[in-house]
Amino acid sequence: MSRYKTPEQKKAHCEAQRRYKERHPDKAYAPKRGNWVLNRDNYARRNPEKFKAHKTLERAVRRGNIIRPNSCVKCLRPCKPQAHHTDYSKPLFVMWLCRPCHLQEHGCKVRNYREGDPRP
Ligand SMILES: [Zn+2]
Ligand SMILES: [Zn+2]
Question: What pTM does this model have?
Answer without folding.
Answer: 0.55
